[in-house]
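# nightly structure sweep
# worker-07 picked up a monomer target from the shared queue
# config: single-sequence mode, recycle default, output format = structure tokens
# input follows
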Amino acid sequence: MTRDKVKKRIEYLVNEVRRHQDLYYKKAQPEISDREYDALFDELLKLERRYPDLALPDSPTKRVGSDLDNEFPEVRHPFPMLSLDKVYTIDELESWIEKSRNDTGYDISFTVEEKIDGSTIVLHYENGILVRAVTRGDGFVGNDITENVRTIKDIPLRLSEPVTSIFRGEIYIDRKDFEKLNSQFDSIYANPRNFAAGSLRRKKSSEVAKIPLKSYVYEGFYGDVSIKEHLKVLHKLTELGFRVFDDVGYFSSTIKKEYDNIFKKHTGWVRGTYRDIDNFIIRMKEVRDKLPYDIDGLVVKINEYPIRDKLGYTAHHPRWAMAFKFEAPQAVSEILDIDVQVGRTGRITPVARIKPVWIAGTTVSNVTLHNQDYINSLDVAIGDVVAVSRHGDVIPAVDEVIEKNDKGNKTFRLPEECPVCGSKLIQDGAHLFCPNRNCPARIYGRISFFVGRGQMDIENLGPETVKKLIELGLIKDIPDIYFFNPDDLLGVEGFAEKKVKLIKEGIEKSKEQPFEVVLASLGLEEIGPKVVELLIEAGFDSIDKLIKTAKKKKPDIFTKIQGIGPKTAEKIIQQFNDPYILDMIEKLKKAGLKFSKGKKEKEEEYSKIFEGQVWCITGSFKNFKPRETAMEEVKKRGGKVVSQVTGKTTHLLVGENPGSKLEKASQVGAKLVTEEEFLKMLNEK
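# output follows
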């Protein structure tokens, strides 16, 4: 495919994916199936990775998996709701299990649960009462759909214990109910998952109440530190009143008697040793179609929570869990050529160009070959006829060579030198890397990443502009963005006075980005938004603190932070001792970028009118959604906030439909404040 065709294809996919996102996420009126949408999205993502200079700055890939809309209030999750890494064969799963056992060095066990094809929900309970239900959204921010979720009969409005906690689960509809009800709606949904998601977004909860939605809950994040095993948490969830999967597998090196009582109470759950995992997976694949609802795979998790904490997370998924996806549709094609791509970190990726084939609702013409080990294992050569599938119905991959070529082409070998700059490649694990930081492909990649949407978001400095600036020699690396003279572009084709002015404004505006955005935008290995958030929460609220600690070269300082594992700790130390990175940070400091976490609000601007007061809140509010935002206003003005009314509570903010706190506040003599009165207080100064 020529570059012009690639560019047109990317533009088409961007518009098409954006249109379907709008139909699905905002209007709940999808025109295509979930798999077809995933195929379009993944093709766009793959093309952008292979041709980063052609990626559009407003591509929907910058907001992966978001389900935000304007109908429901946005709520930030207390911690990221990450997706799962995936494998597609039992051999791959066994390799991951073995690697997990070796990496931890402990006698660990695993649970296996169904991966239901529904709509993810995050449930917030306070003292056992359901107070909020939030969609997963983009993993960091979701939508408050509490009123609709309350209509789902198997989600308890009150737990059996006064637990204050967050739970994660899935909302779905049985296939029979879907088939029966789908025909009754003006818009026909493609599958049960889309129907469930669309139903949850209906404006009237009375309409949602008529739909037989169901739920399963599979994670609890409450603070009972005495429960350190996932199997016990699943059992606890049932005691609290949640529905948990009937089919759960538990596998360890030996059968542990400490779980006897749990398995007596859950007769559908099974247990065995590691060698029994295969049979459990095979059985679940066989009964898949007999289940009343759709599952698209299984989820395997490490059972022990302390081990999970040690393994931590990547920017995208936990290292302690793996999704086993059921087999994908397959097609046959011929490898026409193999290209070698160079990423911003220098990673070398071989990409097979194949005769276009139709798989799972989309045309596949480019397939990643991962690395040399993967190529060798399949004995892949140009001209071979191969079986191609979309792993997990998303990722195009070569499964096997069906027929060797008759042209004499041998197994493809990656070059020893970088195809862009000619530097000798180095091996790191299973992958080859170009070590030359000045490699044009790496320079372009890291600058494009830095300025892109979801990072520094520098308006009017898109991929084509970055490419032109590099070609003209105006910028050679990230810091140059803030020191070159945009006026030097005047006279260059496509850069009139108005555009140059907009570039200046975009660069200047980016200096307002907070520390956490700046740090994540540097594109350092293992230091994405999730790790940045963990570091800041642990007290590393400035780059100077981070560098000073990294210079001690003690990984345990970082591994003590929940969610940061040994690999991430080593990368933090390595990179913040790297003279190149330290020099880049110093230059960006001089440019005026923020390298410390400022106060969320300028507290000195607020009069301390609530100082010495203790506030609590009850009911719902028109101007404060979620209602905790009202309590943030109290804190800004010097007040203390509590979750329960006690003898020390001085004020209770009362909204519509107040709970038992109202009576308790009256008993202790606390002042009752309406929303209208509260707003007047806030506006006094």
